[in-house]
Structure formats: C-alpha cells, structure tokens
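[09:14] KT: can someone run the structure on this one? pasting the chain below
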Amino acid sequence: MKVRISDAAKEFAAHAPVPRIALYDMAAPASDSELAAMKGYAVLLVAAVSQDPDELPPKRLVGVSGNAETPLVLIGGSTVVDDRDPSVTKVLGRYRWYGLYLFPIYLLHDGNDLAIDFAAHRKGFVLGRFSNADMAELHYGHPAVDPPVDVPDHNVVMKLIAREFPGFLSRQ
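[09:31] RB: done, structure tokens below
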C-alpha cells in the first residue's frame, strides 16, 4: 500500500496539494470452502490520506448498487502521521488512516461501486467501480449473487488477514 500511495503522489504531483485520496486492496477468499467459511465476504484494506487531520478516520465505507447502499463492517483501523516521504507529504498530506473492512463479494458485479465518506468535507468519494469480470477472476464454483446473511467467525477473518495483510496485524 505504501508503494501505491507513493505512486499516487507522483501521478497527482501536478495537482498538489491534493486535499484527500483513498486507495484499497481486496483480499478475497482463496477457494469455495474459504468463501463459505467467510460467509460470502472478502476483506478490504483501505488507506485514506489527507492534508486535513479532521478528514480521518473516514465516517463510512459503502458498496453502492443502484440507489441501494450497503455499509461495510469495519474490522479495525489506525490513524498515523507519516512525514517520512516529503514528496508524498507535499502532494497528498501527512495524515493517514488504514482500515480493514468486511466486503460482501456479491457486490462485484456490473455497475456497483465502492465509496467512502470522509469525516469532514467529502462524501460519496468513489474508490472503485466493479464489473462481472471482477467476480469471474475469483474462479469460484458459483457466483456469489446474494448478500451475506451472517458475519464470519473472527478466527476465520483473522486467518485471511494474517495471510493477505500480515503488515496490518503488526500495526495493531
């Protein structure tokens, strides 16, 4: 994620200072059996960076399907001040928030979005737009088309996080 933040700072350098930005990475269950154990959820790592500390932590993260919003469940997050890379600080800001969320995989279909509401000044900031191709890349035996009805067991979630985002666990 640090590399992606650095790359974003390079991409947006001509527009500096950028008031806020957010990036995400998804860790999907690796198999049909893990998908069942995760009750239809993946885990999202979200990094929000801002010039203004009042923007963080974000108010909420939602999946958007048409006019319907599905609030994502926050697993945990942490706010940091990072001045180590002056080029990132100048362009994107020194205030960062990293969070993990449960993401319902059924949202990975044409026209659905992932959006974040920052704490102070920006609502409905679109982080990603999904397509049926995103679902197909997961190679599950069946497409996840229904919303989850239950949250997965904490130990199952932590096992996925430990495998996919081990650096996040060391921050806690």
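[09:33] KT: thanks! The chain has one domain: 2-156.
[09:34] RB: yep, looked fine to me
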